[in-house]
Amino acid sequence: MLAFTSPWHYFTDPVLQAPTIGSMLMCLASALIGVIVFLRRRSLLGEAISHASYPGVVISIFITAVFFPKAHDALAAIVLIGALCSSLLGLWVIEKMQRSLKVKNDAALCFVLSIFFGIGVLCASRLQFSHALWYQTAHIFLYGQAATMTDIHIVLYGTLAAAIVVALFFLYHSLRIAIFDRDYGKSVGVPIKAVDAILFILLILAIIIGIRSVGVVLMAGMLIAPAIAARQFSDRLHGVFILSGLFGALSGFFGNYLSVEIPEWGKRQGWEWKFALPTGPMILLTASAICIMALLFAPKRGFVRRRIRALYFQRECCRENFLKYMWKNAQCLPVEGIAKLQFGPKSALFVPDSSSAQNAYSQSSMSFCAEAEPAQKSSNLSSKANLAIPSMSFTQLKAGMGFSLWQTFWMLFCLKNEGWIEEKDKKFCLTTDGWQRAAHIIRLHRLWEVYLVHLGHGVEKVHRSAEEMEHILTPELEQELTLLLDNPQLDPHEQPIPSRNLFTFIDTKSAEKTSSSEGML
Amino acid sequence: MMFFAAIQNNPYWGKNFFNVILLFIERMFSACLGKIGMGDLASDEIQICVLSLVAIASATVGTFLVMKKMTMLANSLSHTVLLGIVLSYLCLLPFLPKEEMSAHAVSVEVLLIASLITGLITTALTQFLTSFFRLQEDASTGLVFTMLFALGIVLITALTRNAHIGTEAIMGNVDSLHLHDLQLIFWIAFSNLFLIIIFFKEWKVTTFDRGFANSIGFSGSLFNYFLMVLTSVTVIGAFRAVGVLLVLAFLVAPVLTARLFSHRLKHVIFLSIGIGVACSVISVALARHFLSVYHLPLSTSGLTVTSLGALYLLALGLKWGLKIYQRRKPLLSKN
Amino acid sequence: MMEDIPALKVEGLSVNFDTTSVLWDIHFQIPQGMLVGIIGPNGAGKSTLLKALLGMAKPLSGKMECFGSPLRKAKKRIAYVPQRSSVDWDFPITAFELVLMGRYGTLGYFTWPKKADREAAKKALELVGMSAYADRQISQLSGGQQQRLFLARALLQDADLYLMDEPFAGVDMATEKAIIALMDQLRDRGKTLLVVHHDLSTVDAYFDWVVMLNTCLIACGPVDQVFHADTIMRTYGRSNALLEEVIKLTQNKTCGFH
Q1: Are A508 and A337 in contact (CB under 8 A)?
Q2: Which among A280, A301, A322 is the end of a domain?
Q3: How far apart are CA B252 and CA B75, in angstroms?
Q4: What does the pLDDT look like over B202-215, one tens digit per residue?
Q5: Do B216 and C105 touch (CB under 8 A)?
Q6: Within an 8 Å CB–CB cutoff, is residue C107 touching chain B?
């Protein structure tokens, strides 16, 4: 036996049909308009307008009760008209207060919000006294009530929601300009003021439709929650619109669904205390839940994903630092020919960074490299490379990096798995790939140091920044820097900058060609 | 609403607007002289006193909220305070008899703690959304308070099956005010006034020029938190009388009205207190008037807020009239 | 000697905003009795430097001393004139009340301004030529008049070190001349003034000493020695576009956006 009724039932059952479809349509409309409100950073305007519509609702019900007591069917339409007038008045007051009376935006919104709502409360008390049954109808609009919606409501609200969708569809391009690039729009003749006016009207329309299912008090949340959720998934305006509408419709459905199902489920479980859940707040809670899930788990902007990516980045930085350390400690370069290409006539090969005091080089290794025979042309890098790259022991690495036992073990294990280092006789050395990667990092580091000095920073200060930037510079930025700085050979500490040539397996002919054209990198 | 039969011995019964006010002044005099004890106060008088004290408490705090552009935060706090009240109410639910489920059941201390906690949670959550999720401030405010308010409504409806509490919380129930409420709101108004007065120059300088205030040693953010705490407490105090949403009217409308006429901070505060108190008296008198003359029981809190709005319009009219008079004055004096 | 103690000594100051370096490893000293201009392009950290000196921006590292003692202790000797745009001029106070705020620091909590404080405020208003506007609402004043009020407030603080953030922004010529005359008078009385300035053409004329800043210190010293084409070029000349792009990329990477 299913714990919950099938959702399909809600579309087919004649009693449940109208509330479900009605809510979905209303929430769809408000979610779409909410995108605009959210992107324009006027999320709280919706709050003020929804409260301002309340007196209109009450007064229109009052008028119907007094003058047209038989017009039950037309009530929905009359209420909409009343709400529309009241909201327009509220909007006008807000604009007037800000413009002529120099009242700040938030104070104007709160003023209209509370005063209009108070007037509504007053009128409702009058209604309650003389026409108690009609008062119940007015009361519905506080927190919404989907259950009493009929087919008339679907037709009415459905038409209005469709009108909103159509209007947005036709206005799409002008809308985009009005939101993101107003000055450009004004210059090419887009009627920005007219677009703004239409958007305000659509906003009011969406609100007066929505208050029937979500209520006056919670309408503001229904406008922005789906929009916030949609924004986390998409960077394109049409994507945000579509997703927002989808989330709105889903909230409308599940709000209704859960508000009926949960008490039923409780009843079936035999809970002793029976309760009912109000639909309006349930719709809003569903929308908020979707919003929070989106904020946390959205693929690009979600918090959880971002944290994971940030941690991954930190891990990569750590690994690159390790490879760098091994590179710097390697006693000599792999192949003399490449060494010549790399460093040109000056034979200063390995000079330790002045700041990394741990790297001590023996004079013997220096002289060994300096005396190296030039240009042994070889096309097979790897075999020669591996023979020449010196290796380091576990304890050396652990001490040098300052890691704990397990950290070092884990690091070496991961790097070995990924192919950056290899193990030979209990000692570790860089593979060619590892070598290239490390050299690339060093290149970026030293390029950045040259750039900072070029900008005017002191030579002693640039190392710290370069330690960060070496992990961040993209190939495009690297290219820009090389061009800007005229392909420098030495960094500010008089150390050679590894060239880009090293990173391709080239035969000697093309190596010579590229060495002469190094400047055009 | 009103129970007509039970209040026959109310001295205000059957009086119209002006008589109510006159009688009130007379009786207040006697009360000050000690001739009428606290226990003998009529319900109308209690209402006037409570509403006036709400006005005093709100005007003092509301002035700085408006100046600091924190009114939306006050709106946010007033919504989430409901959740705090609901939660504290629910914590006490097991200890209450089933019939006694009205808003009066919760004690003062619990309410105050609830206000502090919800105030802190609201601000913390809004800040969290803004900084960690890179959400814009207006959107995070809107999301936080509607979500928490919806939660409060769901809990309250589900767990008490008393729909009235939801409405009462929003709109208050002036007619069911006790002497007990008077005491609560008195202390809140008194402490608000006291704290604003003794720290007046600090409030002035931290609101006007935060950078300068920090440089001379007054922490801007400390006073911001202080203001939020005071607002939460005021909202709780007013919640029984006017409900959480209408407190906002008391916080904002008198200040905006006073601002039309005054250019000194002290005067703005006093004027807004005066306006709030006047509206309280007028609205209770009007409520009695409508009841006596037209036999219409109207919501007193609704009347109060409407009169606050009406007074603002009146003030605008007055100012406009004054401007025209001043423009015509040189012409008139020539004649 | 008392005169040898520098008015301001900053060592290794680094300030971050989010993950961006706004100020980086700043070292400088300023002797007493100087009118100092802080110049640099937008975003160079000039306002941040002032805020760090006042304890409003938390530095990542660095030591700051004012008249030989750590900043916290020397707060009474420092007066701050913030940017005019940072304040809401619709606030309901009069010009006199604004100036009187200068005494609030010395009064502390639970004390009201005394008659002597009010007299001093009146004198300060006279000094800046604003006595006629004492009871005027501040929103009715022009930019230049508002700046003068700020200056009068700073005068009331009777400080030894004045920190001013762009006092000449949006101010008419007459007010600018009046302000610089006042600053000269203060300097002649031995006060030290640190002024964030944006107009390169007037640096020679106005200041004795200059601090040239572009996230890090380019130069600091007497105007005639330090303020010339090369240092100006290094402060303003190099394009920082690449740097800004990289910094933005760093921010995104550390927050996990890419």
Answers
A1: yes
A2: A301
A3: 10
A4: 999 999 999 899 88
A5: yes
A6: yes
